[in-house]
Amino acid sequence: MELKDIKSPQDIKNLDIATLEDLAGQMRKAILNRTSQIGGHVGPNLGAVETIIAMHYVFDAPKDKLVYDVSHQAFSHKMLTGRADGYLYKEDFAKVGEYTDPKESPEYDIFYAGHTSPALSLCVGLAKARDLKGENHNIVALVGDGALSGGVAFEGLDAGGALDGNLICIFNDNQMAIAENHGGMYSHFTELRETNGTAANNLFKAFGWDYVYVAEGNNVKKMIEVLEKVKDSKHPVVVHVNTQKGEGYAPAEEYRERFHYRNPYSIGSGNLLNIDTGESYTGVFKEFLKSNIKKYPDMLIISSATPEDFGLGPKERKELGANYIDVAIAEQTGVSVMAGAARGGIKVVYAVVSTFLQRAYDQLMEDWAMDNSPAVLNVDSTGIAAITDQTHLGFWDIPMITSIPEVVYLAPANVEEYAAMLDWAINQNQHKVAVREPVYSVEHADYEVDTDYSDLNRFKVTRQGKEIAIIAAGDFYVRGKEVCELLKAKGYDPTLINPRFVSGVDEKLLKDLVADHKVVTTIEDGSLEGGFGQKVAGFLGDTPLKVLNFGLQKKFVDRYDVETLEKEYGLRPEQIAATILKNLE
Amino acid sequence: MELKDIKSPQDIKNLDIATLEDLAGQMRKAILNRTSQIGGHVGPNLGAVETIIAMHYVFDAPKDKLVYDVSHQAFSHKMLTGRADGYLYKEDFAKVGEYTDPKESPEYDIFYAGHTSPALSLCVGLAKARDLKGENHNIVALVGDGALSGGVAFEGLDAGGALDGNLICIFNDNQMAIAENHGGMYSHFTELRETNGTAANNLFKAFGWDYVYVAEGNNVKKMIEVLEKVKDSKHPVVVHVNTQKGEGYAPAEEYRERFHYRNPYSIGSGNLLNIDTGESYTGVFKEFLKSNIKKYPDMLIISSATPEDFGLGPKERKELGANYIDVAIAEQTGVSVMAGAARGGIKVVYAVVSTFLQRAYDQLMEDWAMDNSPAVLNVDSTGIAAITDQTHLGFWDIPMITSIPEVVYLAPANVEEYAAMLDWAINQNQHKVAVREPVYSVEHADYEVDTDYSDLNRFKVTRQGKEIAIIAAGDFYVRGKEVCELLKAKGYDPTLINPRFVSGVDEKLLKDLVADHKVVTTIEDGSLEGGFGQKVAGFLGDTPLKVLNFGLQKKFVDRYDVETLEKEYGLRPEQIAATILKNLE
Fold first, then answer.
1. Of residues B339, B369, B540, B335, the one with CA closest to residue A396
2. Do B362 and A363 touch (CB under 8 A)?
3. Which residue, A155, A169, A353, B93, could crosslink B333 as a Cys pair with Cβ 3.0–4.6 Å?
4. Cβ–Cβ of B339/A125 closer than 8 Å?
5. Is A316 exposed, middle or buried, given 0-12, 13-18 or 19+ CB atoms closer than 10 A?
């Protein structure tokens, strides 16, 4: 049986074990084929091949509902539901996304589920719908790859354990999150593995679930046997599956963290095809940590499972020792630990990915902002150029963070300003400071960068002109500069402003613009609604100034080309300049 | 020993058990004294008296850190740390808030912790700070009253279980959340209670904690003995305490849900002093459920532990049967179950309190908004008049919800519109609809209320005038009407607009205002930054119209008087009218 000929799960129902094993080999090759060329989640997908083959062999999708949490392990599911071309042929790669996608496959992909941990709660909803409609099918969640550490996963275990109908949770235990797993429960999983699932103490049973253990999760025959047994069960059951992350590909088995997600690489060596050794904002952040840990020996650095994003590889983490804590995929806890440690009187830095910080909105508000807990929150992967999957957009952090009182949100425009802001933030004891790590392009300051930001919401005029004011924030400051140049070339004399702060406005500076300006333009690399520019528009509403807000629209966009989307949103320098001129008329 | 003479925990250190028991009796009376007169959390505080006496007897606060989760059970802590007057004397009630408060007591109150569940994560932060500073003291969290069902509590158990120093979690198991507890783990807690803590299966041990069980949690002698044993322990330990919610007050023991939080009542009978039997928005919601459950027999109604807020008492919940699910204090799961059930093809309504919905920002974005999951989210306790504790403000829901794509947020202005919007929302299959339940005052429509809202962001002109346009949203529509009357009395002819939608703007209507208006005023009962008015200001920025935004400032305010705060924010009708006229000049 050739992988390319599989058009639906029906095509594997009558295959014998040897053929399924051969198919697993083809699927692994296809995973490597795709990810080595365009990048992607390597380890999670390699580890889950047999589990997913068994799921489709035993259950009857789409009647039975197969849900993935997180769906970055679902490549095999896509290959078995008519989308193998997206892994086999380069010209078809773009047709298939990284995550499950109900638009891509309304029949087989139930949810987007790009973020970890909610699958069991979503499945409780599916189960309630099934039962209320009097239907009768299996609901199966494949949970794992660290997803169990997120709070909502436990809530889902709790809610699921109280159901009295069918609900099957396959817990893919590959002993890893993105980095290694952290937390007390992982010793318990070790205990379960070492006792072949017979330990008297059992987390899943404590939540009310039945429990089955499978030691050989990469053995398709064993997986089929176990799933046949739990199929149509009338009570929630956890199938705890021991798998090897990166199974079948030596580099991914050895370097499990690096192969969680990998940019294009050589299949032979596993080495990256393009190594960017140039200057980077990550380098600035790393240097900031290095110099401050010397100054503050009791400083705490927090990560929630993504330390490599912030330049902290295994070596650096080992060196940091007790000064470093990885709370696992658990951003609520990341923020609360930050607030608690700050209250305990030490310097604290929490580095987090913008899209995942969404999970901690309430902790930002109630545990951090409200309290007197000066700490530094470094927000990564922000704006249009960071991550282009709709489930991982970096568009929403400005509206989210700047709607919360007391949090100062700084948007540095270049390497020097980023370094200066981080340094100011750690060395002061008054404010709760978030810093938006730039992404778009590595820039250098052509003005003198301030070292003190304690005078909040003080915008910086980097070019004094008249008639037109351009307030361009963060990594879009350079865009403002480009617009400024275009206007100068047409004989105008614009004012250019780097606001530095996106959580408030410089009231005096804005009011002073009234005297000799007509149009105020804001440019930000984030969603407009609830963002920075609307604060400016709201503040200037009672003046004769026109205010033009440029930024991203409140829309989900998926796997877009950055420049194309910018054009659609009128954000290219020449478009912005043209709009300004139109409004001067 | 008289309670009034206790000025610090030192004052109880040398008391004998009999005196402590007498003190417990005095503290109970003081709790009833306060709550019966001004309302408050009755049951949680009555149940925790002995536990907290033992905590202060055994541990040495403020050196040892005592953290409360949720702090609505912490009245006894306040009484033992110099704040007994706030419970004994009516004139001092206002000096003491409902929750722990570092401003009220910087020494003894470590966090605000008005929301449930993050205490263990906060304590992990405190523990890291202690260890990095080389200090040596106990860190003790009193967790309970349902707080364990929130996801971050499990994350905290996970992070805490991996520590290798002192951390003590006192789990106050009173078998209740706000309503009864829900979820699979509660059977497990029953098992632990029934085996006197000896069951082989143990959730806390699975997370890596040591474990001690106390059957008689309302026995101060037993509690002291146990806490003496765990004091200075060098490994995280859970002390599972079986208590009686409402202990010592018959009505609260019998009606545990009603006495979780109680408005002023007669101590003798337990009956409420003022029963409002008049018309209410809750009544509208209840009627909406009643009529639609008949129409859609497979409809699902979700609550996260606050069903009484939505008119669902024990009787109604029983009648609803399988059509009702309480996911416990777990709003992330509330939203995910809503999305999952909608994806499963049934009608779904989730009723949730604004401030608690903050916990589910990521689920709103990733699980609900992104997917095609039409459902109805009813948001309660919104705006300035709902809850005046800074930890429970209803100010933030408009910025939070309206920064998320695809979610339609409706703000009804009166009883008829609320009913019509709920009905439209449940009967359509296109949109994900949130409805902002009005709070401020029960109003009736003096215009014809629409039944169809599928033409999104269509504002309604209820009075056509000129020069001045007043766009007044939701329960502040009536405020706009008052302003309109004031202006009419001065000879002006304002346009009055009910936007109905706060998640977007009526572009055509707004552009048309340019022709014969000069000033556009927005009025909303929510935070301005990121809110509705700034969308209007941003949209009209390129027009000559002046835009004035009225609403709440981005500030934490605590236990305020509504009218006083309105005055401070310039929100009284005469203030708004004056500001408009000033801008007409």
1. B369
2. no
3. A155
4. yes
5. middle
